[in-house]
Amino acid sequence: METEKTLLEYQDEVIKLMIDNKCILARDILVEINNAVDVAEILEDVIQEAGIKEAVLLFRSLPKELSVEVFSFLPVEDQLAIINAITEKEITSILEQLAFDDFIDVLEELPANLVDKILEKTPKEKRHEINTFLNYPDGVAGTLMTPEYISLRKDMTASEALEYIKKEAYDSETIYTCYVKDKGRKLVGIISLRALLVAKDEEVVENIMQEDYIAVNVHQDQEEVSEVFKKYGYLAVPVVDNEGRLVGIITVDDIFEVIEMEATEDIERMAGVLDSSKLEYLDASVWTHFKSRLPWLIFLMVSYMFTGLIINHFEDMLSKVLVLVSYMPLLMGTGGNSGSQAATLVIRGIATGDIETRDAMKVLWKELRISITIGIVLSGFNFLKVLLIDHRGFLIALTIAVSMLCIVTFAKVVGSMLPLIAKKVKIDPALMANPMIASITDMFSVVTYFALATLILGL
Description:
Blueprint lengths: L3 H16 L3 H11 L2 H14 L2 H10 L2 H10 L2 H8 L4 H10 L2 H10 L2 H9 L3 H11 L16 E3 L4 H11 L8 E5 L5 E6 H6 L6 H4 L7 E2 L4 H11 L3 E5 L5 E6 H19 L15 H28 L1 H6 L7 H25 L7 H30 L4 H31 L9 H24 L2
Parallel strand pairs: 1-2, 4-5
Antiparallel strand pairs: 2-3, 5-6
């Protein structure tokens, strides 16, 4: 288990054993590994290569404690596949032992009739808590949090607090940070396990707790929550309601999933793909890919139709100086790439919090200087190339050079400003990336090129 190669060897061996109907030997290998994350990865491959029937057989053969932990690390689609293949009694047994946040995640994906059956067998107090969590809208802090945390009273002594932590530790998501509440459940402070360990036994929690803490609201967007984790480097953050009452905590492992999901969403939008399903590429159907890709392509196709209309408008001029056509891809491509460069860097800056909408003028001034500098270099290069290598004449070389400078400057300014404008009007900045920038700069490139050609060449 020291290298990736070793894990791959285990995967191949387990899959071969399951195909050969040697479940006990395969089970023994997984028990020997005894790492839930690695076992879950191997089980995923068994589902893909040997089939769900064999995977369920192997899953059932695992020790109960290991199987529950492995289940929590499986992708949602594999969890559902296993749930659909086992009995209700087995489902209930697994779910009862899952961490509360994992339990909620699974319930959200299950059919309503099965959820109702599970809730019927759940104690009334826990059922109310589950329903509260299930009713939070998608994408907010409430859907990420867990109620399994250590809660202390401010009048406890350090020794009493440590004793209480020992008693509650097994059922808590984390014990490294504890949360101090008053009688009305309002969060009044936090205290680290380290602070309790080094404090004198008789020291009162109220005297050593931190009253200056960071908390998030239960309805706060999950992307904003992830920014809190990235900014402060916390392992856990308390979640409070509108009255400041502590309702749960969010741990860093749940935020990793949010960061990955948000990054995937941004990448897809920057590539002109509308929000796709949560399925991986190979698991999503052709129809799913079709729906997520087609709308944006239609929009871009229509925009390029306008570019075609502009070219048609200058048809007479092109017929007189046909050589101008050969430089259109060069100018349009450079413009699109220049705009995409600026857009990508600004979108990244917005995502990391380095750039805010109030920085628009700073960004504009910087991109103006960058674009003019780059534009002069590219224009000079192309002027010499057209004049000395292509032998097209001074005026055509000048037309290409001036067009290049104008197009690069425009593209970089637009590429840097559109994401900031999008953020200002509450639109995802990633939507203003490569495809959008390319279509805008292409239209501008054609108009600028032909207008300058008309002016300089006197056409």
